[in-house]
């Protein structure tokens, strides 16, 4: 048990510290790297809670894909972030206020939250203990039965958003030469060159007229 | 494996349990590093044989100690950090590459029960770790503060992200047939002789997986991140000494890992090819299959020319992605139609 507790405090401390460094690092690339460490520690916390499937998804989706794109953009953009930060201090009061309100709301929520009397009657399927059923199977059994339409709708919304982003940023420019792979592969030697009899002293001028 | 070592102590204590974990990690990592050294030798020998050369043959009998001599040479050289480099990230990058290449081995089953951790989400774990591998390369490319290194890093990042998608779909096909994400379950589902191994029913996606694995490990013909003809050596151009050695070891450990994953997913892991050979320990078959996978990787390196970068991207997104997506639907349809889905656990 002490091992688990130690691991929890380690992950929690690293997550909070790295989260703080995300916003305090001067170099934006460092910020993204700290963000990755935060994601990673959060994944560790998920594992400790027995939610190994969520932990792996967090690593694959956020660390493996989203953060890579962040890193890409931050590395490629030539933005002077120091200049951005110049006036940042004047926003501290309002930012702090928003943070305080969020914190107060969260605290109220957690304090007031309790299971209703009739929850046990309303549950459609019995809830097995966490050790009895695998994460993946438990989530699949819920996502693909009770919440099938919501799940599919969420997927569709993401698909539409993706296609929308591509359509909005895609521009057709005139005069761009495109590669047609099948055309290139289907090209035969006789389409590409022509054998010409060149008489001495006359050059190739008359023969190449037809090409 | 951890439990087996722990029970050897005979006394219960959290400290001893930690010791057992460390011992079982060492039992995997030390043989792995030694086999990486021989894998480099094996690779060079195959490459030489295809080109009708002799390959390394001076250090030790048949040149067997060549890799160790190279390692020693790298070890005693000076680590040069470029003046404009971001020192911390520059030195972190090879360590991350090397560590990630090692920790993925935690879930590989060498025999029934012979693995550090029998994770329920073993396949996802391997996918997660291999998707992290891109960080070592992109960090080294950025921190080197050199154009060649940066271009190599960006290329590699785009390449690994692209081919991960089709690897993911291939895994989905196999998982549908197994009904579990646990690697031991994947092997058990293929028991009873080579005609039950998944490379027969899943032959098309096995090919997709093999080619994607080549791209994922930056092996020729997809070694564009280090394409020496255009980028000198890509992301590792500024590295010397042990930092370079860590990249090199990590690369080969990753190739062996991909061979091991291929053995587990498509060649029945520790199972013998025919049941009559079951008396030979499973670890022998597993290692033989890993060696076979590595041999295929080496042969591809020997006789396939390097792709152009746009061709590589086209292959990943326009050929493999639709094809693997089609096969997911195809295999799911077949399994539902002929009632081949594994029973609901």
Structural category of chain B is mainly alpha
* Structural class by SSE content of chain A: mainly alpha
Number of strands of chain A: 0
Oligomer kind: heterodimer
Helix content of chain A: 55-70%
C-alpha end-to-end distance of chain A? 84 Å
Radius of gyration of chain A: 30 Å
- SSE run of chain A: HHHHHHHHHH
Contiguous helical run count of chain B = 12
Description:
Chain A: It is found in: Cell membrane. Chain A: Keywords: Cell membrane, Membrane, NAD, Oxidoreductase, Quinone, Transmembrane, Transmembrane helix. Chain A: It is a multi-pass membrane protein. Chain A is built from ten helices and no strands. Helix content of chain A is 66%, strand content 0%. The model of chain A has no long low-confidence stretch (mean pLDDT 82). Chain B has 345 residues and is mostly helical. In chain B, 66% of the residues lie in helices and 0% in strands. Chain B has twelve helices and no strands. Chain B is globular. The model of chain B has no long low-confidence stretch (mean pLDDT 85). At the A-B interface, helix 2, helix 3 and helix 7 of A face helix 2, helix 5 and helix 6 of B.
Short description:
The complex is a heterodimer of chains A (211) and B (345). Chain A has ten helices and no strands.
What order do the helices and strands come in, and which of them pair?
The complex is a heterodimer of chains A (211) and B (345).
Chain A: H1 2-24, H2 28-48, H3 52-76, H4 81-85, H5 92-112, H6 119-122, H7 135-143, H8 148-169, H9 181-186, H10 189-192
Chain B: H1 2-9, H2 14-50, H3 66-75, H4 87-103, H5 122-143, H6 147-178, H7 183-188, H8 203-216, H9 228-231, H10 241-266, H11 282-303, H12 309-337
Helix pairs in contact in B: 1-2, 2-10, 2-11, 3-10, 4-5, 4-10, 5-6, 6-8, 6-12, 8-10, 8-12, 10-11
